[in-house]
Amino acid sequence: MSCDGVIQYLEKIQIPIQIKDRHTCLDLNERDMYILKRGIVKVSLIMQDEREFNITFLQGPDVVSLYCDCLTQFRDCHPKIRVESEKAEFYCISKDKFYKRAKEDAKLQHYVNTYYRKRLKLTVTREQVMIMNSKAGAVCSWLYRLASLFGIQTHKGIFIDLQVTNEDIANFCGITTRNSVNRVIRGLKEKNVIQVINNRIIVLDMDYLKQFTE
User: Which pLDDT score is estimated for 110?
Assistant: First the structure.
């Protein structure tokens, strides 16, 4: 089963769709399971000192609450899900009902188990890349991932169809200041690796970015 299969199940039992506007945060709790049907969300961890550490972007369809469950190992942090697209559509179902269905449906159970394994592998790989790279390399590897997830091929290059601030990039790459990201972005523009138009990034040289992901 894919996430499309989960969506089909929710439609079959007539779970209503909730529409959230850009920069709306989900009300995460122990009772409810959120499934993103359409849109883009940002997953972050809120530290005890209220600093925010960005983890990843998720694009629908995706069972975003499962990703939050993957983060429960960080006992002193709280997950945060914020809508980054103009609109996002969600299903909200009780966790008891969802997991009861998973026990009865082998395909759904397999999807849940596979989801955890895949997300854990991606998280470990991302941390390895961040540790092995310099600040510039970390930013390049993250831009490569963004282009892979949200890139649209144009005559100029790969247009990243997502508004991302330098502060966002800093929080994703574990960089303490936005100025450090500004310097990296400026350097990439001077090397004709990227172009920034109306606060949107166009990747001109994917091969340059790719070298920092391997």
Answer: 87
Q: For residue 67, give the nearest of 18, 32, 104, 34 by alpha carbon.
A: 34
Interior angle at CA 160, CA 41 and CA 173, nearest 5: 65
What are the extents of the domains in the chain?
Answer: 3-129, 133-210
3-129 CATH fold: Jelly Rolls (2.60.120)
The pLDDT tens digits for 149-170 are 889 999 989 999 888 888 888 8
Q: Alpha-carbon distance 77 to 68, whole Å?
A: 11
| Buried b / exposed e along 94-126 (16+ C-beta atoms within 10 A) | eeeebeebbeebeebeebbeebeeebeeeeeeb
Q: How far is CA 64 from the centre of its chain?
A: 9
Residue ranges of alpha helices (H) inside 17-175 are 64-70, 95-104, 106-132, 135-150, 166-173
Beta-carbon count within 10 A of 16 CB: 8
**113 CB-near residues (< 8 Å, 6+ apart):** none
CB 42 within 8 A of CB 85: no
Q: Is the CATH code 1.10.10.10 the one for domain 133-210?
A: yes
Q: Which DSSP string corresponds to 126-150?
A: HHHHHHHS-HHHHHHHHHHHHHHHH
CB neighbours (10 Å) of residue 198? 5
> How do strand 158-160 and strand 151-153 relate by DSSP bridges?
antiparallel
Cα 156 to Cα 114, 199, 202, 203, distances in angstroms:
37, 16, 8, 8
At residue 189, the pLDDT reads: 95
